[in-house]
Design brief:
single chain, globular, mainly alpha, about 0% strand, Hypothetical protein af1432
Amino acid sequence: MTKFRSHDEQALIERAETLARAAHAGMCRPNRARQPCVEHLAEVASLVDQGGGSVEAVAAAWLHDIVEDTELTLAEIRQHFGERIHVLVDGLTDPPDFAAMPLAERKPAQARRLSSRCSQTRLVKLADQYSNVRSVLIDPPLDWDEIKRHQYIQGAGGIARVCFGIAPWLDQKLHGLLAEAGFPHP
């Protein structure tokens, strides 16, 4: 199903995609395939679009990792894309104090923080978690042992609980992945 978008709406998404592709140029996931990071961003944006996300949510999906992965700041996101997208990207960006947390603590902290965010932020995060869990199951980061993979997938289940009901078909896809990995329905 193709959605009708105005010229301005399509231009907004294209600006976000262009910036994300430029900012992540040459960056790859640390897995065997060395998957370009932009493939993850494209998958998340596509899932958000399929899930009925707003134009701003699709743009934010392209930008959801940009503050953590590049030199761009939330202030620059606000300057280039306005307050609505800034709020979405802020909700998807870990605060600086999260970086020092072990994964087993960081994922629940992300879920708690996400619980107070709007449904569009949670939709992007649900799509992000689906993409990341799928990647961890298929081709995990080379330096992640089984314990770290388990902690990540378990944490993604906690995030899925916070996002439950926003996009039922995506809930089902993520729950299928979690079941495949041996985790109970969140």
